[in-house]
Structure formats: C-alpha cells, structure tokens
Specification:
It is built from 21 helices and 13 strands. A hairpin with a 2-residue loop joins strand 1 (117-122) and strand 2 (125-128). It is 50% helix and 7% strand.
Length: 561
C-alpha cells in the first residue's frame, strides 16, 4: 500500500501546475517484487511453490465438470425443483381420504409383493422415505406415519430399501444413452452440490482467477455482450469486486470492496458455468453463496462458501465422479489420485499456466481454448492482469513457459549428445539457443524468478518451444512465424502451427514419431468407409513425407557448427 501511495504522489506531481520534480518510482516500470518483503509460505510466493495438477488428473476432472454443466445441468436443476416441490407438499398436505387412498395404492402392493420400499439413508441407517411418500401421493405426514406403524414399514424399508424416483424427464446423455433412468428424490441435493462444484472447477481453471476472486463473483457479473457497430461478436467480460487494499478517503479498509476497473475475459465454458450458477442463486447474490449452496442443511449461512469448504467439495466431487464412471462403464475416465495430494483451489491457476505452456494440443478437447487463453492473457493491459505487483497471472504463466522452454532446450541437448540429427530452417539457431539455455532443476520457484522468466522469454529468436502435436520444436522468432502471433508476442500460437515455417526444427525422434503416427492412422483407416479411409491415408502419407524430408536433410550438431 505504501508503494502505491508513493506512486500516486508521483502521478499528482505530473499533473501539478508547479511540479516538484519527483522522480518516477522504479517499481512502476520494473515491478514491485524487489521492493517488497521476501515472500513467505503464506504470502504470494505460496502460489509459485504449489505444484500444478497432474495432467492425468485435470484432464478427466475438466471433462466431467464440463459434462455436468453442459449435459446434466438441466436434469439436475429440474430434479432439484421437483424435490423442493415434493418436500413442500409433504409439509403442507392436509389429511384427506384421497390422500390415504393414493398412499395405500402405492405402498400396499409393494408390501404384499415383497418388493423394495421407498427408503432414505441417514447416519448409516435406512429409513422409510416419509416426505417422498407424502409429496408423491398427496397424503399428509401423519397418514404416512399411521401406515408405517400399522405395517412396520420402517424395519421393512431397512431390509428392502428401494429408490424414490421422481417424474422428471431425463435429457442428458452419456455415450448416446440417458445417464439416468429416473432422478432419485434423495440424490437431488447431492447432484446440486456437485453441479456447483463442477462450475467452480471450470471458473477456477479456465479464467486464471484466484480462489477469493471466484468466490466474490455475483449473479449478473457476466452479461451477454452487445454486438459491435460493425457486427462482430464481442467477448464476454466478467466484472466483480476485489477487496485487497481497498480503503476510503480516510484510509480505512472498506470491507465491501470495490469493483475492479478492468474485467476478466470469459471463454465459452466459463460463460456456461456462470449461467448455471445464476440459475442456482437469486439475481445479484454471490454465485457461491453459502446460503443457496447449502442444499442439505438449509442453515441460512451468510457470505460465500469458505475456501476450506470448497476444497472439500472438490474432493467429494472426485469421489462421485469415480463412482459414476464405474456405473456408466467409463473406467478410463476415472480421476486418479494426484501425486502431490489434495486438489486445493490454489493449484488451478498454476495448472492453467502449465497447460498453456506445455500442452498446446491439450490432453482434453480444449486445445483451441488454451490457445485463446494465451492470446487473452498476453494482452496484458486489456485483460486486467498486467499488475506490476507480485502474484499476477502473467508471472505464473511466464514461469511455467520459461520452465517448459528450458526443458525443451535440455531435451534437445540430450538428443543431440546421444547422436540424433536435426533438420529444419532453424536447426542451427536452435542448437545455439539450447547451448545457451540453463537447465532448471526442481519445480519450486520464488516469486523473484517471475521477472527473470519474463526477460528470458523476451529474447526473440532464442527461446525453444516443444510442440508435440506438430512433431517439432519451434525456435520462436516472431518475424519468421507463420502462426500469425500478435505484435509483441513472446510465444508461438502452437495450436496454429504451419508447415514451412522458418522456426521449425525436427530431430530423429520427431521423424520416428511421425512414422508411428502414420501407422496409427493407417490402422484406423482400415476400419472406416472408403472415402474417409482415403482421406486418412493421404494424411498418413503426408506424415511419412515429412519424416523422409527430415532424413534427407538432417545433419549432426558438428556439421551445423
């Protein structure tokens, strides 16, 4: 805060009719890290010391989160509305003859046939589903209780517990089939809880927001954009409040915070997640309101769900996903245990940066979204993440990108040392860059490394980017790039890699991977109709031609000196 006040003093001096000649503070141009206390484990440095989520974890986690929001949300919300309707009826139904007749018509045949009875679980035991029976039949709770006593339904329900299906159409699909035959009355609250968690995961991972920033979002924060005057569709913007260092004119902290001057940019999955959350809470309310996300207890809590509670919900969501994956016959979509422990909210920003830097094609079907996110995040002024203080999303992205580039250089050195040849117009430049790039050991990095990482990435023409989906290394030089990077970009648009680019470098290992990919495509082509198979075989031939071109032009490191 002190640094900010000194910066304000300099700015006021620039506007003064009689300036005092105050020099521009160095942190306004160089960043504040060198002028702040050392980062401790509880401060901004903790984010950079957090390990990103394992790709085998975040891949299926994001797939299931998007599936919940895009495929199952309508069913879950309709099921919750029906659950609430039945529960309300159960508490307000009057004792009538028609209610008793309907109740007996439902229960007595099940009783006489030895069939399962509608049951609910509570504290490890099974009990008769009183509210469900009352709401479904129109009977009063007193009538349900009398029938229970007369026939001993509680003990029978514990012995023969059955479902409580609701008459709600199921529209969601998995592998072309409905994901449920019927939604159950007693799973409605759990599904709503997991739906909120799925939206949380999407917002955390695909925006780059900090956990507290996501928790502060409110309904209405992401309105649909108005078409521009020339007819183009504008991006969705997320507006919210921030709280850190927000003071009034007297210097007192304003607990209500203030709206950020610059919004976040939202990609499509995030917009859909926010729309679902807006259907779960009243307009203007916190999207993760503790009151409206307490589907079981209904305890009337205030404010947003706490970080610890949200962390627990993520772990519970993973347990549910793994159980659902087995039920749906999708064991390959289960979420494995992360090697670094629990999936805390603070790990998602680091993971986003890791994926943008290291997985241009992505382990999930979001390659283009990753590319768009890098484009958005690289627009540092317009995106609102151009903070000159510690801990902005750009520092995380720069660190991960620098680490990835250093690993790429180290792998290239190792391959060449092992006798592999290299080809491509940038081969000589790539070998020089690899020799100049230091090898990074470990993953825990201090926040002061962010500035060094930014300077490292700004060395146009000598930073190496691995692109496994294009089977090459990009020795990125902006003027040579055919992927049309933005002016001032320090990284290629790896999802838009073009053949014939002057930045391309291939090794013998890449050529071997090209041939293996061609064989894989040929195998798929043998199982497909002729026209589609011919198209695939043409692609396979192109891969083999690229491999042959490498073999014909590849040279050793010694020959390129």
């Amino acid at each position: 805060m002190v640094l900010g006040r000194l910066t304000d003093l300099w700015l006021f001096d620039q506007l003064s009719a009689r300036p005092a000649g105050i020099d521009r503070p160095p942190w306004d141009t160089e960043g504040a890290d060198d002028f702040l206390p050392p980062a401790g484990t509880a401060s901004a440095g903790a984010e950079n010391s957090t390990e990103p989520l394992d790709p085998q974890v975040i891949g299926p986690l994001l797939v299931w989160a998007i599936r919940m929001v895009e495929d199952f949300a309508d069913d879950i919300l309709a099921g919750w509305a029906e659950h609430c309707r039945l529960r309300s009826l159960a508490t307000t139904n009057r004792t009538t003859l028609s209610g008793r007749v309907a109740l007996e018509a439902l229960v007595l045949p099940l009783l006489h046939e030895g069939a399962q009875l509608p049951a609910m679980g509570r504290q490890g035991t099974r009990k008769l589903a009183r509210a469900y029976l009352a709401g479904t039949t129109g009977a009063s709770l007193a009538q349900v209780d009398r029938l229970n006593v007369r026939h001993g339904l509680t003990s029978l329900a514990a012995q023969r517990p059955g479902p409580c299906p609701m008459q709600v159409p199921v529209t969601g699909r998995i592998k072309g089939s409905p994901w449920r035959e019927r939604l159950d009355y007693h799973e409605a609250a759990e599904l709503m809880r997991h739906l909120g968690t799925a939206a949380l995961v999407i917002c955390l991972y695909l925006t780059g927001m900090r956990p507290q920033e996501v928790a502060a979002l409110r309904s209405g924060c992401c309105p649909d954009p108005q078409p521009a005057s020339h007819g183009t569709v504008q991006r969705h913007l997320i507006r919210s409040r921030h709280f850190k260092n927000v003071t009034d004119d007297d210097g007192n902290h304003v607990s209500a915070g203030e709206q950020r001057a610059v919004p976040w940019v939202a990609i499509t999955p995030v917009v859909r997640a926010i729309r679902i959350l807006e259907r779960m809470v009243p307009h203007g309310e916190l999207l993760f309101s503790a009151t409206h996300h307490d589907f079981v207890g209904r305890r009337g809590r205030h404010g947003a769900l706490k970080k610890h509670a949200l962390n627990l919900r993520i772990e519970d969501f993973i347990v549910w996903v793994n159980r659902e994956a087995q039920v749906q016959g999708l064991p390959d979509q289960s979420i494995p245990q992360d090697p670094h422990g629990a999936l805390g909210m603070s790990r998602f920003r680091r993971t986003l940066a890791w994926h943008i830097a290291r997985q241009p094609g992505g382990l999930v079907a979001l390659a283009i979204q990753y590319g768009h996110l890098r484009t958005i995040l690289d627009a540092r002024t317009s995106s609102g993440y151009g903070s000159r203080s510690r801990g902005g999303i750009h520092s995380v992205l720069d660190i991960e990108t620098a680490l990835a580039a250093a690993d790429t250089a180290a792998h290239l050195r190792d391959r060449v040392a092992a006798g592999e040849k290299v080809s491509g117009p940038a081969a000589r430049r790539a070998l020089t860059a690899a020799a100049m790039t230091p090898r990074f050991e470990g993953r825990i990095v201090p926040t002061t490394f962010a500035k060094k990482a930014a300077r490292f990435l700004a060395r146009d023409g000598v930073v190496l980017y691995d692109n496994p989906d294009a089977f090459l290394i990009c020795a990125f030089k902006r003027d040579n790039a055919l992927c049309e990077p933005d002016p001032g970009a320090t990284a290629p648009r790896q999802y838009a890699c073009q053949q014939g680019c002057g930045n391309a470098v291939r090794t013998d290992a890449h050529a071997q991977q090209l041939r293996e990919k061609a064989d894989e495509i040929d195998l798929k082509a043998s199982l497909l109709p002729e026209k589609l198979a011919n198209r695939l075989r043409c692609n396979a031939d192109n891969f083999r031609k690229m491999a042959d071109a490498h073999d014909a032009t590849a040279q050793t490191a010694e020959a390129l000196k």
